[in-house]
Structures are given as C-alpha cells and as structure tokens.
Amino acid sequence: MPISAFGQALLDGLQDPPGSPARYFEMRPPNGQALRMRTQDFLACRREEVALLGELTKPFSASRQPAVLDVGCGAGRHLKVIREHAPHALCVGVERCPGLRDYCAATVGTPNGFFASLDALPEQAFDLILLVGNGLGIFGDAEPARAGVRQLLGRLRPSGKLVLETGHVRDSGYSVDEFTVCYQDQADAPYRWGRAGPGWIEALAADNGYHVMFRPSQAPGGGFFFAILSAGTD
Ligand SMILES: C[S@@+](CC[C@H](N)C(=O)[O-])C[C@H]1O[C@@H](n2cnc3c(N)ncnc32)[C@H](O)[C@@H]1O
C-alpha cells in the first residue's frame, strides 16, 4: 500500500504510547536548511482551534444533518473535534494518503466519507469546509489556489462557511515554497506549497461575493491566521 512519508510519520506517531519522546519529520528545501516538524502537532487540535470549531458548529441545526468537508484532512484531528461538537454531522475528508484515509474512516465516527481527491468527491453541499493546518498550501501556485478556493465556495450551502489557514506573507502577497517531506528512509516527491497574505484572501473573497473574517492561529512557527469566508456578514 503506498503511504507518503508525511502519512507514515503521522501513522507511527499515532502508535506512540503517551509520554514517548517527540517524533519528527523534515521539510527539506532544494537549497538551505531543513525544517524539523513535530508529528504530534498534526495529531491533536490546539485550544484556539477547538474554540473556533465550537463556534462554527454552533449554528448547526438539530433537525437537518449538517455536512462538513475537511480538505487535506491528514489524521482527521479537526473532524474529530467537529464530531464532538456535532455528533450527527456528516464528516467528509479529502486526503491523498491512503493510510491516513483508512485511519480517518476507522476513527472519525459515522456518518463519514473519505476521498483521494476533490474530483472524487460526490455531489454534496456543505455547511462548513475546512482548509486548515496551513491547508491553502495544497493548491500550490496562486492561480490553482484561486481556482481551488472558488471550487470549494461553490460547494457551500447558502449559509455555509469556508475556513482556511495560511500566513507568513504580508498584505496581498502570495508566495510558494518548494520542499520535500522526508521521514526515516522515505521521501515524498518535491512539493510546491502556497501561502497567502490577508489582502490576497480579501480580494479572492470579494471576487467571489464573500465576506472574510480573520482569527489568529497559534500554529508552530507563528505568523499564521485563519480566514473565515461566508456569504453573510455574521
Ligand atoms: C499540512 S497537512 C495538514 C493535515 C491536516 N489538515 C492537519 O491540520 O492536521 C496537509 C495534508 O493534505 C494532504 N494533501 C496534500 N495535497 C493534497 C491533495 N492535492 N489532495 C488531497 N490531499 C492532499 C497531505 O497528504 C496532508 O495530509
């Protein structure tokens, strides 16, 4: 079964007994210093993430099944928090790593559905779409990122919200890093990871007729933020 270096790092981390030493993977740029990333940071939500997801699920109705989509869901840490706040929600994830998809399907709780790509996603509108864990990055360059966000906005129910996390760029800038994720003896293919500034997100939201609200993110390294896009002003 093909498993990415990132996926293997997370799946190994999930087996670690409590109190084990920290486990790391590396993000290696073509030139320059590798960045060491702590696997644990992708296995549990931080306090401000739990609070934000709690707020976003509050308007969910008890009489109609809410639907939540997490794009690039990893080990499903955000969907598990959604499940706690809204046990009746349909939790859907898009994740290219098969091992992580299988893990999520077994642990996120039903009803759920996990798919390898956005193209494989069945017709379904969502109350909440997550592109978090620095998730905007999965679209790579600026143009695919604009198109990807537009495609996701098209999947929202009228009162739905899209939450994305990005950062480390000022104003209306957009920047792309290339790096290779390495873990033990495995290396993923080189990856182009995009990052946007708040002005870039505001312009994209306005182009699509959406409002945007910002929240600070405490993601390791600092400089990240959440942007919450909605058709209304609330
Ligand atoms: C930085 S991780 C974040 C994971 C998760 N959202 C979290 O915060 O823990 C990005 C995830 O997106 C997945 N991914 C990257 N590109 C993807 C793509 N094009 N389609 C689906 N999943 C993708 C990766 O395998 C990885 O699990």
Report what the structure shows.
By secondary structure, this protein is an alpha/beta fold. The protein has one domain (45-178, 192-230): Rossmann fold (3-Layer(aba) Sandwich), CATH 3.40.50. Helix content is 27%, strand content 31%. The strands form two sheets. The protein has a seven-stranded mixed β-sheet, with helices on both faces. Strands 1, 2, 8, 9 and 10 form a five-stranded antiparallel β-sheet that branches. The radius of gyration is 17 Å and the shape is globular. The chain starts with a helix and ends with a strand. S-adenosylmethionine is lined by residues 4, 6, 42, 72-74, 77, 94-97, 100, 117, 132-135, 138.
Which descriptors would you attach to this protein?
Rossmann fold, alpha/beta, binds S-adenosylmethionine, seven-stranded mixed beta sheet, 234 residues
CATH superfamily: Vaccinia Virus protein VP39
CATH architecture: 3-Layer(aba) Sandwich
Distance, first to last CA: 44 Å
H/E topology pattern: HEEHEHEHEEHEEEEHEE
The level 1 CATH classification is Alpha Beta
Give the biggest sheet.
7 strands, mixed
| Uncertain spans | none
For the record, the count of structural domains works out to: 1
Bound molecules: S-adenosylmethionine
How many beta-strand elements? 12
Which overall shape is indicated by the principal axes computed on the Cα atoms? globular
List the total number of helices: 6
Q: What class do helices, strands and sheet pairing give? A: alpha/beta
> What name is given to the CATH topology?
Rossmann fold
* Percentage beta strand: 25-35%
List the quaternary state of the chains.
Answer: single chain
Compute the average pLDDT: 96
With strands numbered from the N-terminus, the spatial order across the biggest sheet is 5-4-3-6-7-12-11
Helix content: 25-40%
**CA radius of gyration:** 17 Å
